[in-house]
Write a structure and sequence with these properties.
Blueprint: H1 9-15, E1 29-30, H2 42-52, H3 66-78, E2 89-92, H4 95-106, E3 112-117, H5 122-129, E4 133-138, H6 148-153, E5 159-165, H7 177-189, E6 193-197, H8 218-221, E7 224-229, H9 231-234, E8 242-245, H10 249-259, H11 270-282, H12 284-305, E9 312-313, E10 321-325, H13 333-344, E11 346-347, E12 349-350, H14 353-356, E13 363-367, H15 372-386
Parallel strand pairs: 1-11, 3-4, 3-5, 5-6, 6-7
Antiparallel strand pairs: 2-8, 7-8, 9-10, 10-13, 12-13
Length: 389
């Protein structure tokens, strides 16, 4: 199911954009965007085919199809242990848009929101787009302790939001229940909104376990907006589908108003909701097998990277990306990226401030959501190239 023969490289070279196969020269292996090389589960394609054969593509409910909302609520209840209501859930055209609209709903010009450093650039981008101020809180790669005293010192009269990314992209950290309880306690104490981006929550490696912060207790839950999506777990990035969940009517109304779904200016298309519903209801076996494959690829990736001269890589607890410390090469992230692209013919993501924040300096990120054959070839090229520098 997740071997090299299951990948159609001809299609990837035509359709896989965002720094991937369709954007790199022939012969370059892209380990760039966090998007799997494998086709989605067949049940998802079958659900789309069944829907489209009727040839009706009418407007759907502005708040999302009932099937989607109920399936999402069941997922949050049964998998994430959150007492969720379908009435407080609606689809969005990506988790990225969910992050943006949560900032739009709860931040005013000059308001501050605390983000982790390093973290995906979409947090800072969304905060600043609505006129807010992103305040970085350092959680270095490989760190075992969170400096909660330092975190609380960042909070002032202008602080409105904690932006939680769990698991944390790019480092792969999965926050423990104890850490989440402390984040929740501090957020409630200062009456902060907790925006919990959980798009990576299904990609967690043994022995680690994922806990949703909204599952902790009612007080924390009532401060939390939960965001998820289907690109990482099910390979549906191009379908542009995610979900936003509130746990009370006041937050839901603010979020839905900010989404502009009521006006039809924005909205998640109905075919994407059909696909996501099928993923939730029929494809748990596929996700389980995918996760087993990813754990094996993670172990291969980390072991090989740690044998490269000047490279250090801690095993990610979640996410299918490796965040590699390259400081001992005495070259910058951009220099290593260029060397790997031009000489090894492997594309990686450099740890630039504009991608992940200042905490990414001296790192590169690479995705291992591919076949063992492709991954081993890419790692062999990296090792041969860097070891002769």
């Amino acid at each position: 199911m997740f071997n090299n023969s299951s990948i159609n490289f001809d299609i990837l070279k035509k359709r896989a954009y965002n720094l991937r196969w369709a954007t790199v020269p022939e012969g370059v292996i892209p380990l760039t965007a966090a998007d799997p090389d494998f086709p989605c589960a067949p049940e998802i394609a079958e659900a789309i085919n069944k829907f489209t054969k009727d040839r009706y593509f009418s407007y759907g409910p502005v708040g999302g199809s009932r099937e989607f909302k109920e399936s999402m609520a069941a997922y949050f209840q049964n998998i994430r242990k959150i007492p969720a209501s379908p009435d407080f859930i609606f689809p969005v055209d990506s988790a990225a848009f969910g992050i943006y609209l949560t900032c739009k709903a709860f931040l005013s010009v000059g308001d501050e929101a605390i983000i982790f450093d390093p973290v995906d650039f979409l947090f800072r981008y969304s905060i600043e787009t609505v006129g807010g101020i992103a305040v970085p809180f350092a959680i270095p790669a490989g760190s075992e302790m969170v400096d909660f005293a330092g975190f609380e010192k960042l909070i002032n009269k202008n602080t409105r939001m904690l932006c939680l990314c769990n698991p944390l992209n790019p480092t792969g950290k999965v926050f423990s229940k104890e850490e989440l309880l402390e984040f929740g306690r501090i957020a409630c104490k200062h009456n902060l909104i907790i925006m919990s981006d959980e798009i990576w929550s299904d990609i967690v490696f043994l022995p680690h376990q994922f806990t949703s912060i909204a599952a902790l207790n009612e007080e924390v839950r009532n401060h939390t907006v939960t965001i998820t999506g289907f690109s990482k777990s099910y390979g549906l990035a191009g379908l542009r589908i995610g979900a936003v969940m509130a746990t009370n009517s006041i937050h839901y109304e603010k979020l839905f108003k900010a989404s502009l779904h009521q006006s039809t200016v924005h909205g998640a298309n109905i075919i994407s909701q059909v696909a996501a519903t099928a993923a939730l209801n029929e494809c748990s076996y596929w996700l389980s097998n995918f996760l087993t494959h990813l754990q094996a690829m993670r172990d291969i990736c980390v072991n090989e990277l740690n044998s490269v001269s000047g490279f250090k890589c801690s095993p990610p607890q979640g996410c299918y990306v490796a965040f590699v410390n390259i400081m001992d090469t005495h070259k910058s992230s951009t220099e290593i990226q260029h060397i790997l692209f031009n000489e090894a013919k492997v594309a990686v993501v450099p740890g630039l401030k504009e991608w992940f924040g200042e905490g990414a300096d001296g790192y590169i990120r690479l995705s291992f959501a591919t076949s063992e054959v492709i991954l081993k070839e890419a790692l062999s090229r990296i090792k041969k190239t860097i070891n002769v520098l």
